[in-house]
Every structure is written in C-alpha cells, then in structure tokens.
Write a structure and sequence with these properties.
Layout: E1 8-14, E2 17-24, E3 40-42, H1 47-60, H2 70-73, H3 88-92, H4 100-103, H5 105-111, H6 119-131, H7 146-160, H8 164-176, E4 182-183, E5 198-200, E6 207-209, H9 223-226, E7 228-231, H10 232-243, H11 252-258, E8 274-276, E9 286-291, E10 297-303, E11 308-314, H12 320-335
Antiparallel strand pairs: 1-2, 1-11, 3-7, 4-7, 5-6, 8-9, 9-10, 10-11
Amino acid sequence: VALAPVALAGGVVTREGLAWSGVRGVRRFGANDPATLDDRWHFGSNTKAMTAALFARLVEQGRTQWDAPLGELFPGITIDPGWDGTTIRDFMGHRAGVKDAAALGMVFFITARDDPRSLPEQRAAVVERVLGAPPSGPKGVYEYSNADYMIVGVAIERITGAPWEAAMRAEVYGPLGLTTGGFGAPINNATGGANAWGHRGAGSGRIAMDPADPGADNPLALGPAGTSHMTLGDYGTWLGVFLNEGAGWLKSETVATLSAPLAGEGTPYGLGWIVLPGRAWSRGPILTHDGSNTLWYATAVVAPGLGAAFIALTNQGDGAAATGLMPGLIRAFEAA
C-alpha cells in the first residue's frame, strides 16, 4: 500500500484578505493524521522580509535611519575600515560583501545549538567576527547571506534593547494580529493540538523530525534570517501589507523602499525580497522569495499591481511540490 504524501498547502491572497486556501496530505510521513489549515508552517528565509520590515518600523518611529553609520548601530564593536561607506541597507539587500562560508561556516551550525550564551550574545559574536575583518566578498555585488540578516537582527536588538524575537512580537506579530506567529520548529497548531512535523530526506526515505529535537530547525541564533513560523492564514495577512501599501502598519513610501531592488550586480534583490520584472499576468513587478530549513519549504509570489499574492507550503525540504503548485495557483486566479 502506497504511503500518503506529506502535506502541501496553498493560498491566494487579495487586497481583501485570504481569498482561497487548501491543504492536503499528512502531518507525518507514514501516518494518517491529516494536515489542516490550523497547522503552523515554518517559513525559513521568508523571515528575512519580516526582519527588514521590522527595521523599517523602527525607521518610521524615528529610532534609527536607513543609512545610519555602522559605528552608530554597533557601538563598542571594532569595525574594520573595509566597511567604510556600508549601510544596514546593503546588508538587507545582500550587497555588503558578506559570504556565509566566511561569516558562519560549518563550525557555527555544529556548535551553535550547544552555545550557552543568550541568542543576542551569539548573534553579537557573529557581528564582531564579520565586522572586525574586511568584507569577505566584493561590495555592491549580490551575495545571498544568512549572516547579513543576523547583522540586521543585532542592529534591531541594539535599537530596541530586546531580543529580535521580542521585537518581532512587539512590532510585527502583535500589530498585524499574527497570533500564531512564533520561532523555530512549530510544536502545536493554532488550536493547541497536534501540528505537522518537518521531514528530512526524500521519497520513501523521509524521516519526520520531532520539533523537540534540536535538529528540527537551524540554530535559533539564525532567527532574523529564517526561523519564523505561523499558519497559512496569518502569512496571508502578512503578505497583505505589500498588497495594500502598508495596510496602515507601514507607510506606502516605506513599502516602496522595501520593494525596490538595490543597485549593483547580480540578482535584483530589495530588502527581504527578490524583485522580478513584471510578467503579462502580474501588471507590474513581482516580489518573491523561497524559504527552507531543509525540513520545510515555503514559497511566496506577490504581485501588487494585480492585487494578489500566492503561497505554497510543504513540510519537506524538497521544494518541488511547492514551486510546482505556484503556476497552478496563478492560472486559477487568472481564470476566476
């Protein structure tokens, strides 16, 4: 008897909110417990857009500036002269010259889970290591880096005096009503019941990972770069910020800043989003991002000109099912 696949969920968001959502499959490979729309999903690197928007909130509140000098954001940290002229915006757009291999490396991923220091202290140590040496890559050239967003997270922690997680709850989850938002591998669903588990491996070799296992997510110190989780419905509310010119949570000009690709070579990346040229269907530029901690996969496509956004999620690290669902969601919306 063929085992049921693990779960796949999809959603379509309009300016009015979540217009359609559906889920099929099971919470754990080899079991029969069906995933539901109450389940929380891990969003991996799609957290980056939230971290960038959190910093934007602090700019709007007058607590910092987009182009604040690094010495002002990181007082007490020795900064190599090679970073002269670099701003926090360059880190958000992956154009600061940070290479993860140099900034984090395998040592971080092997040791971070057992690090006795607080998460802000662990993140500050990464900032000290990165900024205390010259840039490891060419400045102004796109180089995707999780360390970039750990650095942004530390800036947020210095500005707010609170861990990034607390700042996220205070400035993002709370004001937007994302009541299921959390961090790390999700344990319970929105009603407090069982939740889907992430999976290692592929095919018949998949292994469901207990969220209590430290290996069920990346080290939590990576938070600002990729540990958020929530329901599909709450994520749809989050995407509504970019369909509704800030939705009263951010100013429209701030959303435009977040959505504009930085100048320079390589992938057109804004602040937490890849920014693609418009297609015939999109009526303007497209914001998109994928996220995975190798056990879950999330992909989002936002077309502000169309007034619609599309979500595809799965509780396995292979993104083929999620990315394969996306064109169908867009076609179905066009045909509706």
